[in-house]
Amino acid sequence: MSPSLENNNRLHPLMVICELDLHVHDDGPKKFRKRQSLAKQNRDGMWNNPGTEVFAIISPNIPNSPSLCTEHRGAGCPVSLCRLILVHCREEMARQLTVVGATVIFGVAPMAETFKQVARLCPTIRNVILLGPPQEGTVSFQQMAQDSGDLFDENLRCKIIINEFEDVFLLPHSSGTSGFPKSVMLTHFNMSSNVMQFLQPGGTNHQIATTNYQDTYICLLPFFHNYGVTLLMNTGFETGAKLVTLPQFEVQSYLKAIDDHKPTAMHVVPPLATLLAQHPALKVESLSQMHTIFCGAAPMSVQTSVKLIERLNNPNLSLQEGYGLSETSPGVLMAPLGNTRLGSCGAPISRSKAKVINHEISDQALGPYQHGELYVSGPQVMKGYLNNPKATNEMIDEEGWLRTGDVAYYDDDGNFYIVDRLKELIKVKGLQVAPAELEDILTSHPAVAEAAVIGIPDAHAGELPRAYVVRKPGMESVSDAEIRAFVDSKVSSHKQIKGGIEFRSAIPKNTMGKILRRELRVEYAKFQESNELMDRIFSAVDSTAKKLSEL
């Protein structure tokens, strides 16, 4: 246990609450020591090679997840935080665990059968530990936790030697700038550096616990994502905050947690920011004690920022946007406190650097307002991709700069703006079109709730922008022609939506709110293949009919 965590634990023993089942997880110092003793048993008894094997936590947001993550970190065991994958995707889960070399699965009892099947598919898994009653073929967490905690003492702690610069703490997954998902090696130094960077003066407005004060966070962001690990779990433990966990997202449960616990800081993604700005059932007075809203994972629209500020009407509230990647632990850019540049994700955080590079000439740095690929560096940049030196070398250059795959620019004051993903840029007659720019215009139309834009092949132009639109309730009569005319009036000719508009009930997104444009491109390609096949069939039928008529 770190000194700050142990001290905060004495100040406020109640640190983690599970909201949905109202189970209070009392993390007092004695219980922390007991579970760290358990982690030590895992390391020395269940694992063959301490410090080299991986403890996979596959769980919804429950109090035990951050506790176990912290304890195994202290025991020198790498941790892989994996998303809960549906039962029919057990093969995908097994592939992910095989990549990281996971040896032990920790999960919840309702997923026991899935975990046992995954263990059979993943040859490295030797133990499945369940939070819940014992089941055949698994180990019960409760049974293991019966130890008195006497094994954990100062002498034992001294025997755990961790090289913070080399030893891996966390193994999240990322696609990087291209290719299949890879396992990111984040060291103890990477992760602790990022927490300290956020807590520097002028950084995030997280408050350190005192005898009379404790921050409260609503932990809806998944703990299998770096955003949740660093900004909620690790920062919360470092500052002594109370963490209210929500195992799943339900609007009413989320609003109830806000009303019950009166959070002092909120960590959101753009869809949650939109909910806070618009949902009629939100009791604004429940957020009166809040000093900070931090938004990350995807750019928040200026319209949402304005609505949120106007609705909460709190002069003491700081609205901060940040930017990061799994490969940077994750934070690297952040809007400073009091920032008025809406739409900007800020400047490099403490001990970090950023630059914009020309796409065509890799060594040419660009000046203000010029669009190019964002490169970043700092102590939070990953050690590399696990067992993938080729991908590591493609991602990090010889000077330690990490290429993000994101298109960005910065203004005269050094504030950065993310324009789009490099690989998602649309090229119309050689001219670049950023999908995010068109999506922002589309969502400013009064009838549009959500939108996504992709490039589709075109024989003449190379690519054309195509939009997928979700209309607001009651606006179903608004036509595609009306929306297209609205957008076309605001952009240059090459940016006009000449690939068509398709109305749909939802836009595909990942759990952090990022639009999955790749899914839309695959969907469109399959649609085109189907159309081409039908054209060939009808052509063959017409040809046969013509020949028969000539007989």
From TrEMBL:
Compartments where located: Peroxisome
Domain AMP-binding enzyme C-terminal intervals: 437-514
GO CC annotations on file: peroxisome
Pfam family, one: AMP-binding
Primary residence: other
Domain AMP-dependent synthetase/ligase intervals: 91-386
GO molecular function, one term: CoA-ligase activity
Keyword Nucleotide-binding among UniProt keywords: no
Listed SUPFAM superfamilies: Acetyl-CoA synthetase-like
Keyword Nucleotidyltransferase recorded: no
Keywords: Peroxisome
UniProt xrefs under PROSITE patterns: AMP_BINDING
Family per record: Belongs to the ATP-dependent AMP-binding enzyme family.
Name of the protein this chain belongs to: 4-coumarate--CoA ligase
Organism expressing this protein natively: Daphnia galeata
